[in-house]
Design goal:
- By secondary structure, the chain is an alpha+beta fold.
- Helix content is about 45%, strand content about 25%.
- Strand 1 and strand 2 form a beta hairpin.
- The protein is elongated and about 35 Å long.
Length: about 80
C-alpha cells in the first residue's frame, strides 16, 4: 500500500503545481487569490478577490505581508 501511495502523492503534487501554471493550455476555471505572510509558510487563498485584498491590507498594516499572487483551483 505504501508503494502505491508515494507515486500517487507525487502525481498529486505535480497536478497542483501545474494547475497554477500560466503557460498551461487549459484555462483556469476557478481563479484563487492568494497571499503569504512572514508568520508562516502557508498560502492563504480565497475565491473572492475582495476578501483577499482586505486580508492583504490587514497583513500589510500588521507588517507581516510577504507576497500576493493568483493561483488556480480547478480541482
Amino acid at each position: 500500500m505504501k508503494k502505491l501511495m508515494i507515486p500517487a502523492l507525487a502525481i498529486a503534487a505535480l497536478m497542483l503545481a501545474a494547475c497554477g501554471d500560466s503557460n498551461s493550455a487549459k484555462a483556469c476555471q476557478k481563479p484563487a487569490y492568494c497571499y503569504r505572510t512572514t508568520e508562516d509558510t502557508q498560502r492563504h487563498c480565497d475565491l473572492d478577490k475582495e476578501v483577499t485584498e482586505v486580508k492583504v491590507q490587514q497583513a500589510k498594516d500588521a507588517g507581516i505581508f510577504k507576497e500576493e499572487f493568483e493561483d488556480c483551483w480547478d480541482m
